[in-house]
Amino acid sequence: MKRIEAEQFTKRLTDHGEGPVRLDRHGLAVLDMLAGDVVLIDDSGAETRREHLGEVVAAIRPRRSGGFVAGLEHGFCLLNDRFAVTETVTCWTAPGVRMNDGACDPLGRFWCGSMAYDLTPGAGALWRFDPAGGVVEAIEGIGCSNGLAWTRDGTRGYYVDSLTGRVDILELGPDGAIADRRPFADVTGEGFPDGIAVDLAGGVWLALFGSGLLLHFDGTGRRDAEIAVPVRQVTACTFAGPDYSELYITTSRFGLTDPEAAAGAVFRAKPDVGGFAPYTFGG
Description:
By secondary structure, the protein is mostly beta strands. It contains no helices and 25 strands. The chain has strands at 2-5, 7-8, 17-22, 28-32, 37-41, 47-52, 57-62, 68-72, 75-79, 85-90, 97-104, 110-116, 124-129, 135-142, 145-150, 157-161, 166-172, 178-186, 192-198, 204-209, 213-217, 223-228, 234-240, 246-251, 266-269. The chain starts with a strand and ends in a 14-residue tail after the last strand.
C-alpha cells in the first residue's frame, strides 16, 4: 500500500478546521466550524479574509448565479459574493442538534447532514436544499452525518455516518431521491471516519479522525494508499491547487489538552490521481 507524507501548507488557522473547498476567485476556503467562520487562503497559504456567518458554519459551496450556499447550525443560508447572508432556511429549532458537513450533487442540490452535539445515536438526519428553495429530510436516524461527495460522472455518491464506522454508496433514482444506500468501505476500530474527497478515477480519500491518516479506497472499495499527517485529528479534505491535482487537508485541536503545535493548520499532499472542481448550487 502506497504511503504519502503530507506537508504543512498554512500556520494554525482554526480550532476545529473543517469543510475545505475551492471558491473560485476567492481561493481555498476552510471552516473554523464551531466558531462559525469561513477562512480564505491564497496560493501561498496565507490567510486573506475571515468571515463570521453564525454560531456554526457546517459547509459552503459556490452558487451558479453568484455567491454561495452554506449550512448553518439549524439549516441553510444563501450568501452574496461578499459573504453577506441574503436568505436563511431553518430546518429545526430544537437545541442540541447542529449541521455538520455537506456538498452539492451534480443536479445542483445542496445536501447537508446533522448530528447531536453529544453524539446521541439517531438524532441527526441528512437534509437536501433544492435550488427552487424547498427542503427535504432525505434520511432520518443518522448518528453523525459527515463526509459526502459525488463521482465525476455523477453516477454515485459516497456518504459517511461516522457512528456506523464506514463509507456508504448512495444511488439516486430518476426522481433525484435516494434509491439505494449500501456499505462501501468499513473502518470500524481504526478511527472515526470523517470528511471525504472523490478523485477522477472514482476513488475515495477518507480522513480518519484521531489517527493522523487519510485512507484511499479505489472504486471497488479496495484500500490501496494512505496519507500521513503529523496531527491526530484530521477532519476533511478537498482537491484544489493546479488542475485540482493536490489534496488539501484540514485538522483540529478541539477537545485536546495537549494538541500538536500544528493542529488547526491546513496540510497538503499530491496523490497519483487528482480530482475536479466542486459541484455548485443551482439556486
